[in-house]
Amino acid sequence: MNHNPIEEYDDVNEAAVAEWKAETTTRERIKEIVKRTTEPTPASDIAEKANASQPVVRDELTELAEIGLVEKIDGAQGALYKRNDQMYIYQQVLKLHEEYSKEELIETLQGLKQTVNKIRTKHGVESPAELAQQLDPDDHEGWEDHTTWQTAQKNLYLAKAAISFYDAQQVVV
């Protein structure tokens, strides 16, 4: 039996990056980084995070900007890039639409509303922001409720949009 020697790394992050780089293409890594880039960022920073050369990153960012997946912002120090949030939301809605029936989405929507109403009633507040203002730093259960509420609220919006997409499809098709 052949055993490949295990490479030694200074830390687990270095090992994870090496594995990620071995299992993906440069363009896949760039796209993954851009999906998480919500603030205008120089191509050089994206290149560093994606473990890619700047010329390749600039070419890929130009292509992604042309098809609308990335926003290019002209800054004083040069071009900055971030994901196009509208396209990101659209992709999330399409994914839900493809994976779930309208009935499943409605059922999910009902469950999410119940979750939000339960937390709202439990804490006597109307929003996650209001809940955050009243929580003590060591109120772990309260902060867990806050995170659950924020996630449920986000998923509510996406589920509503996916349901609306079903409705729009009936009108258009």
From TrEMBL:
It comes from the Archaea. It comes from Halorientalis persicus. This is ArsR family transcriptional regulator. Pfam families: DUF7342.
